[in-house]
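Hey Z.,

So I finally got round to the manganese (II) ion thing we talked about over coffee. Here's the setup:
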Amino acid sequence: MEKTFTIGHRTFVLDQDKAEAAFAAKSVINGRKSEAFNLLPLKYQWAYEIYQTMKQNHWEPEDIQMQKDIEQWNGTELSEAERWIIRMGIGYFSAAEGIVGDNILHVVREVVTAPELKLALGRHAHEENIHADSLLYMISSLGINPHECEAMFEQIPTIKAKNEFVTKTSHDLRRDVDLTDPENKKKLARNIFVFGQCMEGTQFYGLFGMILSLYRQNMFPGIGQMFRYTLRDESNHIELFRNLFMDLVGENMEIWNDEFRQELVDTMKEAVRLEKDFINDCLPVGALGMSSKEFCQYIDYIADRRLEGVGLTPINPGISNPFPWLAEMMDIKKEANFFEQRVTEYRKSSALVMGDDDDL
Ligand code: FE
Ligand code: MN
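And the result:
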């Protein structure tokens, strides 16, 4: 079927059948090569919706006041345990954000074929830049020696182990990998699962919880606020990667067998084990009502929510959330006013959509 558009003295003939064929050729991987980046017709509507939400959540680190944090950091009221949590938070996330961004740009965005997926992934990578920038802002505001952060990343074994756990899933997956091979499809699915559900979805939540626990007790209001913005972004990243994983599997069902499912659950078990070791390094002694034992239970709880989110069996069915207040603080929808002012300033469109996280 052809449709003719006449504009002035020029006539354009558009072929409806070809447009439909282009739509049908869209897929997560092995779809029509589309360097031309033609978003329409949209097939992965959810990706475009997440992109819109991400855009509306835009923030910049410099918007956040650090005065109080600086006073506290230089004052005498904090315990060494509290300072240590901040150091671990800054040390871990400074490079972890970069690892996530790198994996998007060099692996996931390279190999997916539908342009609307590339669009959302490009924004995701940019948000990792914002997060990395926010850590730079914290480091410079508090006057922490940047080499100290780098040293943490290279010398603390539990941080090194977490990083190796994720980066080893990206090494074989670069632009020219043959994704018609089911083994490579599994590698990609595993990479998307590890980054979205194990790392951003689970391993980030130990420190998020500790820093928000300090924030809740009126410590580091600026840092706490930046972590809340970051967390709101992370909930979109987790959802983006969850959808990507589900559609990739849905389009390549030959990989979704018992053996592969078990392998993914075992991978999550490994992520949880590494996170618990890390939590013990962050909280070697109890700090202000926080114990590593409760944080470990919290990680078990979150990991099971992530597994369920992608149709996998939980490891500890029935486990409860030891920090109900954290769920409250992370559910930004309930505190729209907290963000409204800033969000409005960046927002160009008329619809106000707060982070659509039913998050933990
Ligand atoms: Fe991030
Ligand atoms: Mn992220």
